[in-house]
């Protein structure tokens, strides 16, 4: 991104939508790494730009593509949604407290970190949750199952 930021300024942008995935900030449970966040804020400031973060948590477009590996690998703790006939799909269940709590914990840690980094200079102007729950192609999956 170092070469991209100056170009964004040259074309007249003042705010950039920056995605942030849960898996990028919590690669291991309870161990957060905000290197990407810190670099984005630093580089945006250096180029006089603002950031609107897009949080990709448990779901995006009805899929679970952005949770960390440690979540997706533990189906007993983080169960999947089930379709008709108890056919499981690779989408986290919305009915699981463990799923909800782990995602909420990561999002809260991200929010705290941004607030701490932004205490005097407000580069972040918005954080949009991209948790769009649903099951894509449900009928096709059920018919095929």
Q: What is the element layout, followed by pairings?
A:
Blueprint lengths: L3 H7 L4 E7 H4 L9 H12 L3 E7 L12 H4 L7 E4 L3 E6 L4 H21 L6 E6 L8 H7 L1
Parallel strand pairs: 1-2, 2-5
Antiparallel strand pairs: 3-4
Give the % helix.
Answer: 25-40%
Number of strands: 5
Q: Globular, elongated, flat, extended or rod-shaped: what is the shape?
A: elongated
Strand fraction band?
15-25%
Mean pLDDT: 88
User: Which blocks of ≥5 consecutive residues have pLDDT under 50?
Assistant: 139-145
Helix-strand string: HEHHEHEEHEH
Radius of gyration: 18 Å
Give the end-to-end Cα distance, rounded to a whole number of Å.
Answer: 43 Å
**In order across it, which strands form the biggest sheet?**
1-2-5
Report the major sheet.
Answer: 3 strands, parallel
User: How many helices does DSSP assign?
Assistant: 6
Structural class: alpha/beta
